[in-house]
Amino acid sequence: MNKPKLSHPVFLCGMMGSGKSTIGEKLADKIGVAFADLDSVIEKSEGMSIPEIFEQKQEKGFRAIERNQLIKLAGEIEGILALGGGSLQNQQIVDHLKIYGWLIFIDTSRADIFERLSDPTGRPMLETADELTERINSLFDERMQYYEQAHFSVQTENKSVDEITTEIVKKLTIYEGRDYH
């Protein structure tokens, strides 16, 4: 028997380094739906890496590209979309995503984020280790107001990817009224 498909797409939000892409891939596989990563979509559409986009177009230019792609994808995507850490730029984007699908916050502690980002290679907003703690705290403070508006959240501390995806599937089963096990 085939697993039921999602009635709405799932948007995974959370800080960079929270595991959105890893969790999203596993979740999509578990439910039997497609997976996409917003950063990968942007890189493909722009023909350059995220760090190159930041270098050439600065953060403001990147955020405009990100916002346009996200608004477009929200109405088209079927399955799971892992957002970038800063994708939820304002209330309008949060509201837009919540209209089109399930917004799920991958809630990872500051300590875990710090540990995962201690090697900032490829993270355009974290250039030096000296500013890492300050930058993480600042980003948490700026973004938490948007992350906390998700339909539901899943805490990641001391949990494996399998445990996290199982918890999301259980919650989606309730929200969707369908069994994804």
UniProtKB/TrEMBL annotation:
Protein origin, superkingdom: Bacteria
Residues bound to Mg(2+): S21
Pfam families: SKI
Keyword Metal-binding applies: yes
EC assignment: 2.7.1.71
Alphabetized UniProt keyword annotations: Amino-acid biosynthesis, Aromatic amino acid biosynthesis, ATP-binding, Cytoplasm, Kinase, Magnesium, Metal-binding, Nucleotide-binding, Transferase
Cofactor section: Mg(2+)
PANTHER family cross-referenced by the UniProt entry: SHIKIMATE KINASE (PTHR21087), SHIKIMATE KINASE 1, CHLOROPLASTIC (PTHR21087:SF16)
Family as reported in the entry's similarity comment: Belongs to the shikimate kinase family.
Protein's UniProt name: Shikimate kinase
Organism: Rhodohalobacter sulfatireducens
Organismal lineage: Bacteria, Pseudomonadati, Balneolota, Balneolia, Balneolales
